[in-house]
């Protein structure tokens, strides 16, 4: 029987899934043991999953920042068009609304850049715990 070469990746994936749910280390280790992963590999995978989860949150922050910057650019284009075409107050109000949308999109960026889950991330954790109340091996 050949050893499973994907076992470390699977263990890290389990750790990432458990972290995304906001659960603790013991539940992740129990699931990994049920999958046949030894204790030492499971502990190392749990630590790797912490780095991966923080990288995921930072990636989400960069995505939000990129989308917010694009929306901000759209706001500037609308404001410039309003000025050049003489749209008046209506054009500036549309530009202001788009600017506010940009700020709304970027509201979770500081929290995620620090590697901590934002309010929507915590809400997703609650939903996932409700969707998957029992993990394998627990």
Task: Please provide a brief summary of the model.
The model has no long low-confidence stretch (mean pLDDT 90). Helix 1 runs antiparallel to helix 2, helix 1 crosses helix 3 and helix 3 runs antiparallel to helix 4.
Individual helix count: 6
Distance between the termini: 28 Å
Tally of domains: 1
Report the helical percentage: over 70%
Structural class, please?
Answer: mainly alpha
Mean pLDDT: 90
Radius of gyration equals 22 Å
What form results from the Cα inertia axes? Answer: elongated
Strand content: under 5%
Secondary-structure element pattern, one letter each: HHHHHH
Tell me how many strands there are: 0
Q: Which segments are poorly predicted (pLDDT under 50) over 5 or more consecutive residues?
A: none
Task: Characterize the biggest β-sheet.
Answer: none
Keywords:
6 helices; about 75% helix; single chain; mainly alpha; about 140 residues
Can you walk me through this structure?
The chain is mainly alpha-helical and 138 residues long. The chain has one domain (7-131). It is 77% helix and 0% strand. It is built from 6 helices and no strands. It has helices at 7-20, 25-34, 39-85, 89-105, 109-113, 119-131. Helix 1 (7-20) packs antiparallel against helix 2 (25-34). It is elongated. The mean pLDDT is 90.
Topology summary:
Blueprint: H1 7-20, H2 25-34, H3 39-85, H4 89-105, H5 109-113, H6 119-131
Helix pairs in contact: 1-2, 1-3, 2-3, 3-4
């Amino acid at each position: 029987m050949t050893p499973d070469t994907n076992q470390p990746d699977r263990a890290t994936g389990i750790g990432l899934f458990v972290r995304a749910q906001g659960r603790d280390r013991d539940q992740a280790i129990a699931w990994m043991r049920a999958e046949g992963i030894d204790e030492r590999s499971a502990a190392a995978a749990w630590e790797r999953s912490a780095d991966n989860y923080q990288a995921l949150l930072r990636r989400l922050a960069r995505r939000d920042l990129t989308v917010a910057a694009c929306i901000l650019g759209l706001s500037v284009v609308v404001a410039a068009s309003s000025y050049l075409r003489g749209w008046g107050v209506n054009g500036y109000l549309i530009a202001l609304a788009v600017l506010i949308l940009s700020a709304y999109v970027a509201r979770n960026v500081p929290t995620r850049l620090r590697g901590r889950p934002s309010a929507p991330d915590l809400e997703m954790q609650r939903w996932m715990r409700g969707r998957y109340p029992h993990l394998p091996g627990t």
